[in-house]
């Protein structure tokens, strides 16, 4: 006979969750401000749209290349120390760029410094994000994971609004200020982790107990994903939107800069578009209580191409924020559904590796968006570029609709709650085994 069921502490009163949420929110200003600051510095220094697209593509490739090692490290080493190290390295890199901007000014050295610091920033972000994601199950009960993933996605969307706005306005005052603010944000995030009381991972598996050759540790996550067709569907559904939205947003920055729009106005446009992302992330939990994951995935995939087509005649006007806000509002649903499904079905010993493998697969084509956008703006024009993006999204929507595994996404797997900070390394039930 079981004892009385205890109600979990609300997320707003979960101290450790609030610390992680707040610290990463502050740190997310760096990428948000960089979305405006990096392209504008490159363009101001004589770079072409193709160069901007190529550099952004290279940074995206570096981020993807860091995902699998980042996930493996988060499963093998102490997650708290890993997160502190990642945020600390980002703070130091941003401080170095501030020094270069003050001492050197415009030069070839500045261009290389921007690329190097941006590289440290994206790699550090990848090293942090999987450790934080895997640690979530140790500070949040299972019944609250969907809401916690939604709040984390909302955090990212809020930062995506305030970051570009702040970056644009700070750039208008001084090119140093966005990177100084980013350095402070990363330092705050690193310090906050010291005050999280819970252990952020289960007992470490002895090296002698690991079966098979060492390289199997790298492939086990992919094998695990390969045995779960519903998860494969969610990964396919998220890949094309990642590519398209990255390309569309960089196009807006480049077209605005070419038209003589100031950095503050460009940041304001990107920030306003991000309001849609906040609405989508905050409303995800309510939508998932009323509709199945399958319904939300299919609706999102069929609506996204329409938003891209609607943006074609508006790309050089402020009203482009309306179709793009709708697109950015729907995209978080795919991330939240994928993240929740992965967290609920993955054993703790594989959490970070499977999480990194999922983001690797869904994001592996994302760097192509800025690359295609850069060359598309320079050589083909925005209408043809956006038409190609829309056709890609339509093809993915049709494929996901036709796949039999999509019908298995009628609900999330279920598992009983356990106290935060305690976990079992047993694999939760699969979608087919869920009651």
From TrEMBL:
Residue stretches spanning the membrane: 20-41, 47-70, 91-120, 176-196, 233-257, 263-288, 295-315, 321-344, 356-378, 384-405
A Pfam family that the UniProt record links to this protein: MFS_1
Region annotated Disordered, chain positions: 410-435
UniProt-listed Gene3D superfamilies: MFS general substrate transporter like domains
Compositionally biased region (Basic and acidic residues): 415-425
Entry annotated with the keyword Cell membrane: yes
Main subcellular location: membrane
Compartments in which it is found: Cell membrane
InterPro entries noted in UniProt: MFS (IPR011701), MFS_dom (IPR020846), MFS_trans_sf (IPR036259)
Keyword presence, Transmembrane: yes
Membrane topology designation: Multi-pass membrane protein
Major facilitator superfamily (MFS) profile domain location: 16-407
Keywords for the protein's UniProt record, in alphabetical order: Cell membrane, Membrane, Transmembrane, Transmembrane helix
UniProt name for this protein: MFS transporter
Organism of this sequence: Nocardiopsis tropica
């Amino acid at each position: 006979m079981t004892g009385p069921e205890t109600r979990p502490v609300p997320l707003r009163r979960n101290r450790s969750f609030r610390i992680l949420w707040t610290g990463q929110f502050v740190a997310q200003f760096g990428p948000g401000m960089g979305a405006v600051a990096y392209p504008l510095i490159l363009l101001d220094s004589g770079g072409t749209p193709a160069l901007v697209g190529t550099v952004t593509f290279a940074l995206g490739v570096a981020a993807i290349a860091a995902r699998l090692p980042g996930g493996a490290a988060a499963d093998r080493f102490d997650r708290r120390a890993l997160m502190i190290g990642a945020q600390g390295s980002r703070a130091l890199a941003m401080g170095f760029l501030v020094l270069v901007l003050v001492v050197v000014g415009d030069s070839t050295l500045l261009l290389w410094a921007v690329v190097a610091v941006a590289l440290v920033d994206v790699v550090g972000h990848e090293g942090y994000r999987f450790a934080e994601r895997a640690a979530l199950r140790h500070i949040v009960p299972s019944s609250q994971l969907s809401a916690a993933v939604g709040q984390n996605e909302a955090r990212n969307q809020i930062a995506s609004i305030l970051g570009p706005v702040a970056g644009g306005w700070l750039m208008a005052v001084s090119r140093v200020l966005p990177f100084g603010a980013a350095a402070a944000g990363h330092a705050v995030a690193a310090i906050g982790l010291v005050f999280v009381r819970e252990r952020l991972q289960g007992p470490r598996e002895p090296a002698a107990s690991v079966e098979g050759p060492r390289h199997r540790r790298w492939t086990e996550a992919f094998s695990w994903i390969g045995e779960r067709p519903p998860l494969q569907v969610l990964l396919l559904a998220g890949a094309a939107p990642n590519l398209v939205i990255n390309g569309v947003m960089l196009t807006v920055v480049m077209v605005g800069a070419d038209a003589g729009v100031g950095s503050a106005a460009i940041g304001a446009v990107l920030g306003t578009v991000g309001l849609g992302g906040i609405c989508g992330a905050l409303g995800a939990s309510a939508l998932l209580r009323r509709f199945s994951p399958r319904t939300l995935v299919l609706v999102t995939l069929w609506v996204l191409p329409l938003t891209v087509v609607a943006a074609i005649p508006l790309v050089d006007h402020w009203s482009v924020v309306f179709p793009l806000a709708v697109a950015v509002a729907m995209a978080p649903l795919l991330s939240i559904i994928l993240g929740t499904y992965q967290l609920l079905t993955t054993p703790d010993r594989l959490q970070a590796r499977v999480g990194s493998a999922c983001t690797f697969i869904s994001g592996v084509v994302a760097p192509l968006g800025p690359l295609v956008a850069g060359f598309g703006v320079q050589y083909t024009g925005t209408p043809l570029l956006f038409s190609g993006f829309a056709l890609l999204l339509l093809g993915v929507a049709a494929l996901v609709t036709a796949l039999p595994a999509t019908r298995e996404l009628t609900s999330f797997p279920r598992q009983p709650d356990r106290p935060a900070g305690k976990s079992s390394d047993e694999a939760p039930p699969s979608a087919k085994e869920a009651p």
